[in-house]
């Protein structure tokens, strides 16, 4: 396939709509006709189908039942065949395969066009007589319910698709012989295609099917764990193959963490359009994968050493807070006054001040109108130095970010950017109660400078080693709208 071709991947990290009340598999992989054609064409090459065509025993085939078995005419034809020294395929090509649904949409019809040139040598003509033959093999793919998979239910060659002609005009004496040979090839060639080529087509299809099964069953790594996929059933929809997949999440030791079975919530499968394939995964699988990739964590940073400019901005922000709040007249029993003038509050921040970011739960992926967002609940604490145990103040932050999925090699990557602090809540403060909106800009920049680099840069998942052969071109990863 051309390297410029673009694929659309609706990956397991891009959820589809959950609607309806019918049983739904955790994931659905749809393979369009382009994938079927490419893989079957490659398997025909692997099984040396062209060599089989070159070795078709044309001469022995037309001698078996000459002239349709009519004795008198048959003897005349046999006499003519005695003038042929040899007859064989000199050129063979398999043209682009065509995949189309059957009349009842329950099967796929694969037409395999053949372009052949046969030559025969006779003393009646000084040069080789060449005959051009166009025909096609037709294979039928259907679902085998007992095996959950697909089978090639039939393979044949119809004489209706056969066209035979001479490549160049012959002498008056040679024309009758050439016409006799072409008439004998009309019944002989379809029989040869069925007996010689169809077994190769069946073997190529079996290989293709096994490779597809290895593709969907191979574990997908996610962080330290992996998602194990299994085939639940297969369907044929229009001219596509639909593989309904089960899934379970395993840890690094191979122990099951979570199982995903068929659910009453259904997947709305997007139309394949011009994309050769799509992979759509149910929301509960998406949430589990994202939770495994971005588990709850705690990040601590010495702000002066890592982001010194932000340390100065934070100090200025605290000065503004203190100026708005003013000194407190509340002191403890030990006569230690909590109220600080503006310069005193800001001066509490030392060069060893610490910013601590706690994610108490995994982010949530939200899809809306064709865009993907990540919502996060974050606790941010500011410590005046590395020696104090009580934070200067603690904020609860409801943030969301734009989520971008892209591929790097064969790895699927998640990039989170443009974080915004939608709501900020003051959980506690050693300065006094204040409006946390004063800190919105600096808090957003702290999250962008500390949290996002820690979340980005790692591969969210990578496909099995079998993917590159199937999905070797560019990806466009598109979220499905709710």
TrEMBL record:
GO terms for biological process: innate immune response in mucosa; negative regulation of toll-like receptor 4 signaling pathway. Keywords: Signal. GO terms for cellular component: extracellular exosome. SMART domains: BPI1. InterPro entries: Bactericidal_perm-incr_a/b_dom, Bpifb1, Lipid-bd_serum_glycop_N. Residues 36-254 form the Lipid-binding serum glycoprotein N-terminal domain. The keyword Signal applies. GO terms for molecular function: lipid binding. CDD domains: BPI1 (cd00025). It holds the Pfam family LBP_BPI_CETP. Residues 1-21 form the signal peptide. This is Lipid-binding serum glycoprotein N-terminal domain-containing protein. It comes from Cnephaeus nilssonii.
């Amino acid at each position: 396939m051309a390297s410029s071709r673009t694929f659309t991947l609706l990956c397991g990290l891009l959820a589809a709509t959950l609607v309806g009340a019918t049983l739904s598999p955790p994931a659905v992989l749809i393979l369009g006709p382009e994938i079927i054609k490419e893989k079957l064409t490659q398997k025909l090459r692997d099984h040396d189908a062209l060599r089989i065509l070159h070795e078709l025993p044309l001469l022995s085939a037309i001698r078996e039942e000459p002239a349709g078995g009519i004795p008198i005419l048959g003897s005349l034809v046999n006499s003519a065949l005695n003038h042929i020294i040899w007859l064989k395929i000199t050129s063979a090509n398999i043209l682009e395969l065509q995949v189309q649904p059957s009349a009842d949409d329950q099967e796929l019809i694969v037409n395999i066009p053949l372009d052949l040139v046969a030559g025969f040598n006779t003393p009646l003509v000084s040069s080789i007589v060449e005959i051009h033959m166009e025909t096609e093999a037709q294979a039928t793919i259907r679902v085998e319910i007992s095996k959950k998979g697909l089978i090639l239910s039939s393979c044949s060659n119809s004489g209706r698709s056969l066209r035979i002609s001479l490549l160049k005009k012959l002498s008056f004496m040679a024309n009758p012989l050439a016409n006799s040979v072409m008439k004998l090839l009309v019944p002989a060639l379809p029989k040869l295609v069925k007996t010689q080529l169809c077994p190769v087509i069946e073997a190529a299809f079996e290989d293709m099917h096994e490779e597809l099964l290895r593709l969907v069953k191979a574990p997908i790594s996610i962080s330290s764990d992996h998602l194990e996929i299994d085939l639940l059933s297969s369907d044929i929809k229009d001219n596509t193959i639909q593989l309904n997949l089960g899934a379970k999440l395993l840890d690094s030791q191979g122990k099951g963490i979570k199982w995903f079975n068929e659910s009453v919530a259904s997947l709305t499968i997007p139309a394949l359009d011009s994309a050769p394939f799509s992979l759509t995964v149910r929301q509960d699988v998406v949430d589990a994968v994202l939770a495994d990739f971005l588990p709850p964590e705690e990040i601590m940073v010495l702000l002066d050493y890592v982001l010194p400019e932000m340390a100065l901005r934070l100090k200025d922000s605290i000065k503004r807070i203190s100026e708005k709040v003013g000194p407190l007249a509340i002191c403890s029993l030990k006569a230690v006054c909590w109220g600080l003038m503006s310069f005193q509050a800001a001066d509490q921040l030392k060069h060893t001040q610490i910013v601590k970011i706690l994610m108490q739960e995994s982010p949530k992926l939200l899809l809306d109108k064709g865009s993907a967002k990540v919502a996060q609940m974050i606790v941010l604490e500011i410590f005046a130095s590395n020696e104090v145990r009580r934070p200067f103040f603690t904020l609860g932050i409801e943030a969301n970010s734009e989520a971008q999925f892209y591929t790097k090699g064969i790895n699927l990557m998640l990039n989170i950017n443009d974080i915004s602090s939608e709501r900020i809540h003051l959980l506690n403060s050693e300065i006094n109660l204040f409006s946390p909106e004063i800190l919105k800009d600096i808090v957003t920049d702290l999250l962008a400078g500390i949290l996002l680099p820690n979340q980005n840069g790692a591969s969210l998942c990578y496909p099995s080693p079998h993917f590159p052969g199937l999905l070797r071109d560019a990806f466009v990863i598109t979220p499905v709208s709710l």
